[in-house]
Amino acid sequence: MTGIIVTGHGSYATGITSGLKLLAGEPEHYRAVDFLPEDSTESLEEKLRDAIKQLAECDKLLILADLVGGSPFNVSLRLKLSGEWNMEVIGGCNLPVVLESYMSRIMEDDVEKLATSSAQVGREQLVHYVQQQSDDDDDYEE
């Protein structure tokens, strides 16, 4: 089983977990780790290591962080590069990435493939709506 850890600045992790719960129910093999204003990068690392320990029954881990280059992402990446765990890290996560990762991990046993497909879903879910101007208000572009 792939364990999932979501982390990010402020209450990002608990906030996005709230959305996940609404869509998928109470998550299992899943932890949310917030990086609060009073936290240092050292305390964030401790919190992430604790979450990893809580997911000890999982043979693979996927960490989803809010911002590429931010402290939660950087600390997660350091943990991955330590080689202690079979782990992948995605930065720039949104709710579609979290939902896709959570729902697809049952069917996809390879954590690297899971990370790749989840990141693709996140990219595909970004849409910029631009209203088209026309002379006729009844004309809509689809």
UniProtKB/TrEMBL annotation:
One of its GO terms (biological process) is phosphoenolpyruvate-dependent sugar phosphotransferase system. Residues 1-126 form the PTS EIIA type-4 domain. One of its GO terms (cellular component) is cytoplasm. It is found in: Cytoplasm. It comes from the Bacteria. CDD domains: PTS_IIA_man. Transmembrane segments: none annotated. Keywords: Cytoplasm, Kinase, Phosphotransferase system, Sugar transport, Transferase, Transport. InterPro entries: Bacterial_PTS_sugar_comp, PTS_EIIA_man-typ, PTS_EIIA_man-typ_sf, PTS_IIA_man. One of its GO terms (molecular function) is kinase activity. This is PTS EIIA type-4 domain-containing protein. It comes from Hungatella hathewayi WAL-18680.
